[in-house]
Amino acid sequence: MTKSVTTTRNGDVAVITIDNPPVNALSFHVREPLMEAFEALRDDASVAAIVLACAGRTFVAGADITEFGKPMQQPDLRALIATLEKIEKPTVAAIHGTALGGGLELALGCHFRVADKAARLGLPEVKLGLLPGAGGTIRLPYLLGPQKALKIIVSGTPIGVAEALDGGLVDAIADGELVAAAIEFARARAAEGKKFPAVRDRRDKVEQADLAAFDKDAAELAKKARGLEAPVACAQSVRNAITLTFDEALAKEREYFVKLVSGDQSRAQRHLFFAEREAAKVPGVGKDVAPREIRRAGVIGAGTMGGGIAMSFVNGGIPVTLLEMNSEALDRGLATIEKNYAISVSRGSLSEEAKARRMALFTRSTDYADLADCDIVIEAVFEEMAVKKEVFGKLDKVAKPGAILATNTSYLDVDEIATSTGRPQDVVGTHFFSPANVMKLLEIVRGKKTAPDVLATLLSLAKKIGKVPVVVGVCHGFVGNRMLASRSEESESLLLEGATPSQVDKVFADFGWPMGPFQMYDLAGLDIGWRNRKSLGKTAIIADPLCEQGRFGQKTGKGFYLYENGSRTPTPDPEVEKLIDDKARERGINRRTISAEEIAERTLYPMINEGAKILEEGIAARASDVDIVWTNGYGFPIGKGGPMFFAELEGIGKIVERLEYWHGRTGKDIFKPSALLKKLAASGGSFSDPKEAAA
Ligand code: 3HC
Ligand code: NAI
Fold first, then answer.
1. Is residue 691 pLDDT above 80, yes or no?
2. What value, to the nearest 5°, has the Cα angle with vertex 276 and ends 524 and 435?
């Protein structure tokens, strides 16, 4: 086994190399020898300067997240950095890959940082519901100034070396080989024969800070935190860097960290970090299954979804053949795509040249024969089985052997669609979410005959185009929409029984959702669900008459709410309240006061129940996959970890009890507790215990 930390010499410069694959996390077995190395080199008179570098694909990517929530073995990272920082000979971090979290904090314990051209530096702790806990919220503002540091820490987004050099976080960019450049840099500093200040003593940028301007920025960020504690703690701690001494601010940072790390929000966000990585491990798709090569994609249908899917491919550098029924529809689709890119240009997030490069990656087509050179074709045509089957029949005739044939269907049976081809092993569902160029989730729907290498291809392709993939099985609506259906049904009943759309939506907003169900319908367009219901012969008591009046939501200025003069802010509409009253009266329902608690129980718990049924049926491989679907596709609050993680926080026993209560009162199947929930409630078990979760 290779040692986690080794020390070598290059003349009078010592090089410490950390080697803890895959990402050089600062586990105990790294910290212990690293401390020994610091102490030995500090006391070794033959050493003039020290370089701290990493083997493998990256500099230290952070503390070892698996150690959180357990007793910390000493030395901890803070002690390590304190020892490093007191070394009087020049110390230089040689950074490649990503210096993240505790990794960047360690580098900030050095006098200098030399980085590779492609390196990225950041403090992503906020994404784990934490703040940097080893001096990052103090030392980064000392080097970059508090306003810049605040942005980096609260967003958790790493910066590139040019920005780091400009702000003073990095001292030099390596031209050639990184470690050689860092050694040369260290030797030159040692030759200057002077003592360099530690970062903790470089207070000039915080002393010059404009506290009022800082507070204004921090207040803006707090508004966006939507109930999350970590961003607020990050901002407070950076503020402390301005107003307190280094040691006082460091002690406060520690206090905040300890509180956050043991809280439910951080547990939830750490769960999601590992859940996302677990989701990429699919039963029956081992590491030995090689993905197929994807050089060109085809997209059929340039409507809402087809356009967004095509943009996702192009954004990932993959050229797209976009096919429509006729050239007018194609013109419309491409014009929308161009408009979307133009918005990015006007916001400054895309250059004109990049826009032109992306637009050049589209090839127009109205002829299926043009799809013959595509390695994957995704259809996003109307949601009707007959239309989908016709499209797949045509595709089967023109697609090259081995091409992946994918459907973006929201609900339909992928296995039935596959029967219209002679190659069901190549057929798969790729369920993108709207807007497809923005939303991260990709439900990959595995048909009965889908080949493992098709799934492997989609998993790697998803990463390339910036999506978070989850493999799910075939059923009506798959994981996400199937669970959503159980919630939607109940939201309408709540209206009839006495709630208002804004009351229901407020319960959702207070829970941490970006918006409640009625605002979401208005945003997505009520007509979509209406058409779907019609095709299934179903009705909705409130939404159908709204659609009949042309109230499709924001796009028509009216839906469950009013949107006056093109505004996006929903205003309650007395006409809708009257409609609800009328419909209730027609059904002999006496409307009553409905509590926030009732709304929460009757909307959230059926979703959890449906999620448990999905697990029983093996439609999702694990509960954490369901959490990834909901946090990435539907805005479930990340601080609550997804519906299944939340169920455990809430107590499965309590959920079963309340489901039984509502089942007794309403007789509705959505409240009948699933066998799995009942089993876990009885045993006190967890979804994450495979023995318990097995149906
Ligand atoms: N601790 C423990 N395990 C980690 C880890 C960490 N900090 N970072 C990554 N891993 C594990 C992953 O779980 C994964 O394990 P698996 O192969 O068993 O699933 C493996 O390392 C590889 O990770 P990725 O699949 O994510 O690899 P990528 O190459 O796609 O990405 C990365 C690399 C950008 C470094 C990404 O892993 C990442 O963002 N890691 C987390 C960085 C982070 O949040 N750091 C802050 C930690 S908190 C902290 O430092 C607190 C301090 O302030 C006190
Ligand atoms: P849309 O109506 O906006 O676009 C469909 C497009 O397909 C139209 O431009 C139409 O001209 C074209 N088309 C129809 N038949 C065709 C054919 N035979 N050949 C070529 N082009 C054809 O529909 P939308 O919303 O983009 O939905 C497409 C699919 O994506 C549906 O299966 C839908 O269920 C699914 N979906 C929709 C989501 C949404 O929020 N709109 C979300 C996720 C999936």
1. no
2. 20
Kindly report the number of other CB atoms within 10 A of residue 159's CB atom.
Answer: 20
Q: For residues 374 and 573, what is the distance between their CA atoms, to the nearest angstrom?
A: 49
The whole domain housing 566 covers 499-586
Model confidence at 565, pLDDT cuts 50, 70, 90, reads confident
Q: Is 474 in the same domain as 547? A: no
Q: Say whether both 212 and 302 belong to one domain.
A: no
For residue 503, what is the domain's CATH number? 1.10.1040.50
The secondary structure element, H or E, covering residue 6 is: strand 5-10
| Residue whose CA is at the smallest distance from ligand 1 atom 15 | 277
* Nearest ligand, CA 58: 1
For residue 168, CA distances in Å to 79, 108, 165, 246, 671 come to: 25, 11, 5, 19, 58
- Is residue 475 located within the same domain as residue 517? no
Known catalytic residue at 105:
yes
The pLDDT value given to residue 377: 98
pLDDT, position 690:
56
Q: Which of 85, 125, 253, 490 is catalytic?
A: 125
Q: Which residues line ligand 1 (CB under 6 A)?
A: 22-23, 25, 58, 61-66, 77, 98, 100-102, 105, 124-125, 128, 132-134, 136, 274, 277
Question: Cα of 62 to ligand 1 centre, how many Å?
Answer: 7
Give yes or no for a contact between 487 and 579, defined as CB atoms under 8 angstroms apart.
Answer: no
Query: How much is the pTM?
Result: 0.94
Tens digit of each residue's pLDDT (9 = 90 or more) over 576-635 = 999 999 999 999 999 999 999 999 999 999 999 999 999 999 999 999 999 999 999 999
In the reported structure, the alpha carbon of residue 242 is separated from the centroid of ligand 1 by a whole-number distance in angstroms of 30
Q: Where do runs of H (alpha helix) occur along 244-384?
A: 246-261, 264-279, 304-315, 327-347, 352-359
